[in-house]
Amino acid sequence: MLLIVGTMRLPPDKLDQARPAMAEMIARSRAEDGCILYAYAGDVLDAGLIHIKELWRDEAALRRHFASDHIRAWRAAWPALGIGARDLVAYEVGEARAV
To answer: 16, 28, 71, 86: which one has the fewest Cβ atoms less than 10 Å from its Cβ?
Structure first.
């Protein structure tokens, strides 16, 4: 499995405009074969900072995700939404266990 965690930043005054596009991206990504988890969350203390968490079954599922129409549409929306800095890291992970 691949765990992707990180952040993206957009101007706080663009959050309301960005929410429908983010919701579409999340819903379509969650429907993809191989997507186990896909979530965005706003930072409580830093408006405009969005935390990203994804879990994919394997590298092939992630590659299909990157080639999808909805990710192309999402990325095309970034300039209008002011989405700039992104910092994402992928980790290979084993089986999950409760802690």
So the answer is: 16
Distance in angstroms (rounded) separating the CA atoms of residues 15 and 66: 24
Euclidean distance between CA atoms 50 and 41, whole angstroms: 5
How is residue 32 annotated by DSSP?
A: S
Closest CA to 21 of 40, 49, 46, 48: 40
Joined tokens for residue 70: 């909805």
The structure tokens listed for 27 are 């819903």
Answering whether pTM is above 0.85, one says yes
Q: What is the pLDDT of residue 55?
A: 97
End-to-end distance of the chain based on CA atoms, in angstroms? Answer: 18
Residue 67 has a pLDDT of 97
What six digits make up the tokens of 50? Answer: 């969005």
- Taking phi first (over 0 means left), then psi (-120 to 50 degrees means alpha), and beta for anything else, what does residue 6 get? left
DSSP string, 33-60: TTEEEEEEEE-SSSTTEEEEEEEESSHH
